[in-house]
Amino acid sequence: MSGKSLIPATVNPDLQKERNAASFKVEDFASWWHGGAEKLKFKRDVENYMFQDLKEDADLFLYKSHKDIYEQSIMESIEAAKKLRKLQEERNPGGDDIWPTLYSSIHVAGAMKAGNPFGVQFAMVVKALKQQSTDEQYEEFGKRVANFEISATYAQTELGHGTFLRGLETRADYDRKTDEFILNTPTISAYKWWPGGLGHSSNYCIVVAQLYIDNDPKGVQMFFVQVRDEETHMPLPGIDIGDIGKKMGFYGVNNGFLGLKNVRIPRTRMLMRNAKVHPDGTFVKSPASILTYLPMVYVRCVIVLNTSYHLALAATIATRYSAVRRQSPINPDEPEPQILDHVTQQHKLFPEIAIAIAYNLSGSKLNQYFQDTSVAIKKNDFSRLEELHALACTLKASSSYDATAGIERLRLACGGHGYLTSSNFGNIYAKISVTCTYEGENTVLYLQVGKILMKKWADVLAEKQLMPTMSYLNDWKNSKTFNWNGSWDCMIKALQFVTTKKTEITFSHYMRRLKMGQSQPIALNNTGIELIQVAELHACVFVASNFFTEVTGDALAKQSNELRAVLHNLLELFLLKTILRYMNFILLFINLTDADVTDLQNRLEEVLKRLRMDAVAICDGFDFHDSVLQSTLGAYDGNVYERIYAGAKQSSLNSQPVPKSFHTHLKPFMQGKL
């Protein structure tokens, strides 16, 4: 019996009951969430086109070997690229290419279940080449990457160095005689490690290396390096390259290693839109050193949206499951209820839905900051870079931490069934937990933001103007007390007040260490715990205030009263959970009474009740296609048990009733009369 025939064609009645009881139209929420009806329609059209002929058991790649998973990922990724190119020809002939952006987007990931080895190429490399190479360089090799005529990845992280880019060991020495750079990884720790697609999928890569001219270091620069022959795909001389092996997730992405030994490239293969090396060896510095790191800053911006997306994905699975699963009578004399009726279950699920929405709104705002900054850079205006850097660092860190913890809470909320691979929680968790360490390890990023806050507090004391996202420090610098009334506006201002006071205290502790004779680096290291705390609080201020602005301002004026009501409930829940989460800091600086704290708890319980009837509909509004969910617990039809059983039947161990090991090992052992 095939797995598919075991699954009913109808929707689970408990799940349908939830949809019928919703207080708002799901389509209204979906349109708002995806940025308008036209964008929602486009997303659905793309998904229907990409997923229409997918096999339902395509996610059984996890039963395959590492080598076979990679081969499947190549096949699926190339097939997806073909489909998107065809879609481009049908929908937008002669227009701007939209397929490369879609190719690395989360919306088509369901077509590449084993992972996309070329995701970095279109999410990072093409953008880096547009930003960092000259117009002539982009014409020469950038367009080839963008057109997928060659494949490329971004090789920055080394086996011994990650976030600390100034410590990278890979060298690029300029040779005037030949007008070439000579690239080397002088130690094992200098080997490039982790780039997606580097193992066997890429024939070129951007190598981030230390530039040396006459053995004089000129800082980190980018170089476009060929690593494999375009015809044979064999590694070129001096290139040691391969796959780094199995990981917790990203099974088919083909993350690789790269060693370089006296690899020569033309001088014109250093990306020279900003920094330059002339034929005579003259070095021209970049107008702003952070421009070299701009591709990494961009990926941090993308990560915030990506974490919110996957947290919403996990919340959809857990919420639908909770509407179908019945267990543990609340009243001993009544039948087992939907576990969604348990207030403890609501407390596990609903805050994660609100957090996903909060970070989605913040991620959208952050990405707009990046676009605005990119436009300013083209006009030689670099004034926005520090603010973008600080915001990208702190939101990347907070969103990845919160989403990772949230996904695990949601898995646990599904009990034993959440442990099944077929639930897809493991894959979602692996995809997001890794964001805590790539494109900057989170503790290091928080420390960077903490140091910026110390600089800005010195500016506060000097009565200087601050960047817009830190201007609240000036607003509250002279305030000694805070009047609490429990309103949303009050909660936002309370977070600003607490962050300001915590920044002030942290600065005083840092200055005390300097006065004791500690050097600046030592004093900063010894203040590290508090620097992380103020950076996290600063992220919290931005996310909370942005959520408040987005769902109470003019942006929602055209939405229905019902949709506004449910978004206000989600805002209420988010703010309450945030205040309760940081109550230890709040009580240090704000005199809350027992009645104030009791009121917060009562409001939390009340908003959970109000969201109970809308939880499934909100998750439906995220509009995840089943091919994206890839979950036996979270499919739209809610036929959980049938899908779990069908998935088990498809296990490779069940392909024959008696495994070979019974005859070769188990039977001889049991009959050996030991």
Concise account of the structure shown:
The protein contains 23 helices and 11 strands.
Essential attributes:
single chain, 674 residues, alpha+beta, Butyryl-CoA Dehydrogenase, subunit A, domain 2, Butyryl-CoA Dehydrogenase, subunit A, domain 3, 2 domains, six-stranded mixed beta sheet, three-stranded antiparallel beta sheet, 23 helices
Explain what the structure shows:
The protein has 674 residues and is of the alpha+beta class. It has two domains: 121-286, Beta Barrel (Butyryl-CoA Dehydrogenase, subunit A, domain 2); 296-619, Up-down Bundle (Butyryl-CoA Dehydrogenase, subunit A, domain 3). The protein is built from 23 helices and eleven strands. Strands 1, 2, 3, 5, 6 and 9 form a six-stranded mixed β-sheet that branches. It has a three-stranded antiparallel β-sheet with strand order 4-8-7, with no helix packed on it. β5 (204-213) and β6 form a beta hairpin. The longest helix is centred in the middle third of the chain and has 36 residues, at 343-378. 44% of the residues are buried. The mean pLDDT is 93.
Helix/sheet category: alpha+beta
> How many structural domains are formed by the residues?
2
CA-based gyration radius: 27 Å
What do we call the CATH topology of the largest domain?
Butyryl-CoA Dehydrogenase, subunit A, domain 3
Number of helices, where a helix is a run of at least 4 consecutive DSSP H or I residues? 23
Q: In the CATH hierarchy, what is the class of the largest domain?
A: Mainly Alpha
